[in-house]
Specification:
The structure is a homodimer. Chain A is of the alpha/beta class. The first copy, chain A, has helices at residues 3-11, 18-30, 35-48, 52-63, 92-101, 120-125, 136-146, 159-170, 177-189, 211-227, 249-260, 269-285, 292-304, 307-318, 355-367, 406-419, and strands at residues 79-83, 106-110, 148-152, 195-202, 231-238, 246-247, 338-343, 348-353, 381-384, 391-392, 397-403, 420-423, 433-436. In chain A, the strands form four sheets. A four-stranded mixed beta sheet of chain A has the order 1-4-5-13, with helices on both faces. In chain A, α1 packs parallel to α3.
């Protein structure tokens, strides 16, 4: 099948057959399609769309471009959680040990941060020695020993996505529902799961800012997962302000350990709430709990009695990290870091947070990466002291910037301050969980 | 201006400013845009379109990416003809000397054949020694001496088009009105013209097979030419069968010389008719003739009295070709070529010719190129003995294949025969000139 003929077909809005989708993905993987041909077809797909038959064929072709993990010798039900990405979104670090402590096997393949959103692998690497580059054998061994494993995608898992994602990033073709679904679901299906819970973010810090876009994405993800015989559910959750207290790699691990130690403060509450909600749904989908209320109670118990933290510690040991951070989370905080309060410029109520601006500001001082090759400073970040609906007075602290020096503070303090909109009327507190799909 | 931001804008159907179009073309020329980014934006432009402001900005940016010729020291009005390409479309070889013999300076930059359509440069190179690779100085000198020059595009003329055209060819983004207009008009405007006549083909051998598409293209070309102060007119002409008698490089030069020698046969009549129509319009646009009827009479006189042939001969000498072909056109015919009649399979009338199939068949035996690097056999080709509306009997000759050997004959005879549809009803002869725009 000629590449120009395939491009022409989608350019003109026609539908691909399964064979045509397969020919495209083969061409991507064997190098017979040039990058400029791939990007032309991706743009045509972006604008003209894919129907469900094309969507499933694309997921299948991408999935089969690489290896699919086989955990059939593990008795426990296999389940994972995937988030579409946000600012301060750290729930994976608690969900994995928590679900594992309740009998779910969690083979969690995660990504790195890019742009304003963070990545689980970067957060884990802020733990001294932690190894996210596991071979398939090491991954399985870890999963068997402690009930979960946290690692990056190997080159053998969905190689087609690696190629396509890099081109999409460079050609402004990320925000397409069928392309996002293909990218996420091909990788999640390669984990050999029984169940999958998707955390689809909506609001100023999400890829999809509007609720209706997030709903469309959630529906497409759930439909695709179920078509491939994975019990799939999506939770649309608020990302109109950073999740929980901290933004920044080591600070987010610190927050998670503090929560698992029961040393939670008010600003961390949404992190815990979302963690419980998502883990509970994994337990229901895998048949371990009968409903979300029961499952939530089981989750809370495993946090308060220290089982989840113990699981996390066991995993850190297996993945060569320093487990003492679980006993002394302050080890995660770099003593050379300066704490600069960001103060409100006027009296009133917090009405809006430009969450993407907060993420980008922290990225600018090294807390994330704009380009794949950027180096990360794990220690920098931000703590959110005020949330939407809170009152504030001029001069009161909205949040605290964790940075290396005054120059960094000068470069982004204004951006952080301006990210908080202060109005005269108190808004209702936002609902964390918007919809279940 | 960030490349992703520009791609995103057109992807979402927004309009570009002049500055944004300039940023794109700069990026194409200075290499700061990767090929895969260029092709993504080209696909977005293809699907979302360009308005007239964007169209003119794109033409101007492409034009200014290279050198513009300056013929202000030539007193004669400067005019050219450009065809959108067809099969057997050889009028340039007569139009240039004919217009020159009537006082028009014709700086004709031409192209090579690709796919089923032929190219003027290839035809000229079938004349022994003929040099189409002129420097700007040689081109101008030739133009001054004999009133016309025939050459390929130098690297300094519209470099942006060279890059864009190669990518469009590989990514199925050729057939877009604004992109075709930008490609054609940037190159034609670089010739420093006063007037331009466009021959927009329609029918089975044209890029745009439907009349309405050809009309849209013609209107856009004319509007753009006039916006840039070049008096521009378009003639929509029939390409539902090969033009005139011959298809094939040397054979087409032969036909032109025969016509200029007054040795015309019936099958060559449409070549002469179209040549006169297009040249006459150049004479009217440049103010040399008062109307098309007068201009046509002037043209016919210069053919019958031998002036046009004399001009052609003078040019061949200046461009290092063998001028004796004008005295003895049979020199152009390779004696080793076999002539194989293609016979009708049934009685009836010719109702349809798949002109693209004829062009592709001749291309297959070396008469054209499918890829830029393919070598051409100038001697092979086809003569059209029957035209749409003619009656035929089973076994009568539809056309004659000029080929090297029986193997070539076997490989394409069937395709040529099948290109001719024979029906029971006699169709009206087709109008050569469909519309003037």
């Amino acid at each position: 099948m000629n590449s120009q003929d395939l491009i022409r077909k989608k350019r003109d809005g026609a539908r691909f057959s399964v064979e045509e989708i397969n020919a495209f993905i083969s061409g991507v993987c064997d190098g017979s399609w040039a990058d400029y041909q791939i990007s032309a077809l991706i743009m045509a797909m972006f604008i003209q769309g894919l129907n469900q038959t094309e969507q499933n064929a694309l997921v299948k072709a991408m999935l089969e471009s690489g290896e699919v993990m086989d955990f059939s010798d593990i008795d426990a039900p296999k389940a994972d959680k995937h988030s579409t990405g946000g600012v301060g979104d750290k729930t994976s670090l608690i969900i994995a040990p928590l679900a594992a402590s309740l009998g779910v096997a969690v083979p969690m393949i995660s990504g790195r941060g890019l742009g304003h959103t963070g990545g689980t692998l970067d957060k884990l690497e802020s733990i001294e020695g932690f190894n996210v580059n596991l071979t398939a054998a090491q991954f399985k061994k870890t999963l068997k020993k402690c009930g979960f494993a946290l690692a990056g995608q190997t080159k053998k898992i969905v190689p087609a996505d690696r190629k396509l994602y890099a081109l999409r990033d460079a050609t402004a073709t990320i925000e397409s529902v069928p392309l996002i679904v293909a990218s996420i679901m091909s990788k999640k299906l390669a984990e050999g799961l029984d169940a999958l819970v998707l955390d689809v973010k909506t609001g100023s810090g999400a890829f999809m800012e509007n609720l209706w876009e997030s709903q469309a994405l959630a529906k497409a993800l759930v439909k695709t997962g179920n078509d491939f015989n994975v019990k799939t559910e999506a939770v649309i959750t608020d990302m109109s302000q950073p999740l929980g207290k901290f933004v920044g790699n080591a600070l987010e691990v610190y927050e998670c350990v503090k929560i698992m130690r029961g040393e939670i403060d008010e600003a961390m509450q949404t992190t815990l709430d979302l963690t419980i909600e998502l883990t509970a749904r994994m337990l229901v989908l895998t048949g371990i709990a009968k409903d979300v209320d029961d499952a939530s109670a089981m989750c809370l118990e495993k946090i308060w009695d220290g089982t989840a933290l113990e699981k996390f510690k066991q995993n850190i040991e297996l993945q060569k990290g320093n487990p003492r951070i679980c006993d002394n989370p302050e080890m995660l905080l770099d003593k050379k870091i300066k704490q600069i309060p960001i103060e409100a410029a006027e009296n009133g109520f917090i009405t809006e947070v430009d969450t993407k601006a907060v993420g980008n500001a922290i990225c600018e001082i090294g807390g994330g990466r704009f380009k794949v090759e950027d180096k990360i400073d794990y220690a920098v970040g931000f703590s959110c002291e005020k949330q939407i609906g809170d009152s504030t007075k001029k001069g009161e602290t909205l949040g605290i910037l964790y940075c290396r020096n005054q120059k960094q503070a000068d470069s982004i303090s204004g951006k952080l301050r301006n990210a908080y909109k202060i109005g005269k009327e108190k808004l209702q507190n936002l609902e964390l969980i918007k919809e279940i799909i």
